[in-house]
Write a structure and sequence with these properties.
Elements (H helix, E strand, L loop, with lengths): L1 H14 L19 E6 L3 H11 L5 E7 L6 H8 L6 E2 L15 E4 L6 H10 L3 E4 L7 H13 L4 E3 L7 H12 L5 E9 L19 H17 L5 E7 L12 E7 L5 E7 L4 E8 L2 E5 L10 E3 L4 E2 L6 H14 L8 H20 L3 E2 L2
The structure holds NADPH dihydro-nicotinamide-adenine-dinucleotide phosphate (NDP).
Length: 362
């Protein structure tokens, strides 16, 4: 796929424009077809990351918006040339069912709202992309998966790291084990957030908290690095600022037991900057640090190998990969089941932290 992407890019440069790219090059129309994407929720991630990234994609085009903030509409229409007929609010978004401009509805809302609107999106018959974490509960994740199955649409979860080449190298090592059997994993992600804003991210019922927001990257990374699912977890919370972190924990520490005796130490915190994924193996080690960042993901290994492949834009890569899965009718890279498993583990972490007991994971 990488070669094909490079070839397409070079060929379109030669021809000056993808719009005149000959449709017969691959014997089908796919290379010229762009999917119409509709962003739901025009907050920070949509405005500053996804919409700009969509301008860099080969297979996607920003064609619609769903927003509850009327003042954002003219700004987005002007910036991206979105016609009135492709503008919706949360009540009217069901009308997308009859809008042939839109192929994919991308849910970029607070986590506690993902399930309600991902299900609404699936019911329009359009494909669904849903930001991470997939939802607040396993029950909600299952409902999203069921709605997408029932409506025969694809569902992809926005875990951009799994589309990132250095991360993909680490993922491939779960099978090839170049440093022997993994014995220990460390996955920590945190930020020194001095004065957290009083937004949905601080509200429990909205799926706020660092564990859901970025801890989920550490959990996902433990799983893709080992290629295995954990069997138990012992977790605890630390809160040095209870007057600030009133509803959600400031720090969560989660130690998973994986099959084959692999121990995995996880931590997510609002107290300090942490960003490391490290695997200790029989015959060496490797790590990515940062392992979770919009750019600059890089790493090294005990034999001096450097993991430093550069890509221009992770979100563009992710959306093109997910668009190709639709155009080719192929499996998406991060399906709902993958996103749901992280929420299974988050529920186990919460149960352990609240009871002080080791929780078995079935
Ligand atoms: P923001 O708070 O910046 O934006 C959320 C938007 O959702 C709002 O601007 C608003 O858009 C809409 N919204 C609808 N109802 C509510 C409500 N009750 N409270 C607050 N907002 C509401 O969040 P982010 O953009 O940072 O995050 C959105 C999602 O994207 C989350 O699931 C987050 O985890 C994910 N994310 C993923 C990242 C990644 O790297 N994959 C990075 C950052 C976020 P409007 O005014 O248009 O209605």
């Amino acid at each position: 796929m990488a070669e094909r992407r490079t070839f397409l890019k070079q060929a379109s440069l030669l021809l000056g424009s993808t719009a005149i790219f000959p449709q017969t090059v691959f014997g089908c129309n796919r290379s010229s077809k762009k999917l119409g994407i509709c962003l739901v929720g025009l907050g920070n991630y949509s405005e500053n990351l996804l919409a700009p990234a969509l301008q860099l994609t080969q297979h996607c085009e920003l064609r619609g918006i769903v927003t509850g903030s009327p003042e954002k509409i003219p700004i987005w229409q002007k910036r991206y040339g979105i016609p009135d007929k492709n503008v919706y609010d949360y009540e009217t978004m069901g009308g997308i069912a009859n809008n042939s401009d839109i192929d994919v509805i991308y849910i970029v809302l607070p986590t506690g709202l993902h399930a309600k609107y991902a299900i609404k999106a699936a019911e329009t018959g359009k494909h669904v992309w849903c930001e991470k974490p997939m939802a607040k509960t396993v029950k909600e994740c299952r409902a999203i998966i069921d709605a997408c199955k029932k409506n025969k649409v694809k569902l992809a979860i926005g875990y951009r790291m799994q589309h990132e080449p250095n991360t993909q190298k680490v993922i491939s090592w779960a099978k090839t084990r170049p440093y022997g059997q993994i014995q220990k994993i460390q996955a920590e992600v945190g930020f020194n957030i001095r004065n957290p804003a009083d937004t949905w991210r601080m509200k429990k019922d909205m799926g706020g908290g660092l564990l859901y927001d970025v801890g989920v990257y550490a959990i996902n990374a433990m799983r893709y690095t080992t290629g295995l699912e954990p069997t138990s977890v012992l977790a605890r919370y630390e809160n040095t600022r209870p007057e600030v972190y009133k509803e959600v924990p400031e720090t969560t520490i989660f130690d998973f037991q994986f099959p084959k005796g692999i121990q995995a130490h996880g931590r997510t915190t609002g107290r300090e900057n942490r960003n490391i994924l490290r695997a200790e193996c029989e015959h060496g080690w490797y790590q990515l640090s940062p392992f979770q960042a919009y750019s600059g993901v890089q790493g090294k290994a005990s034999d001096g190998l450097l993991l430093n492949t550069y890509i221009e834009n992770q979100q563009a890569r992710q959306m093109d990969d997910d668009a190709l899965a639709i155009l080719d009718d192929a499996p998406v890279m991060v399906p709902g089941e993958n996103g749901m498993q992280d929420i299974v583990l988050i529920e186990a972490i919460i149960a352990s932290a609240e009871t002080g007991r080791t929780i078995q994971i079935s």
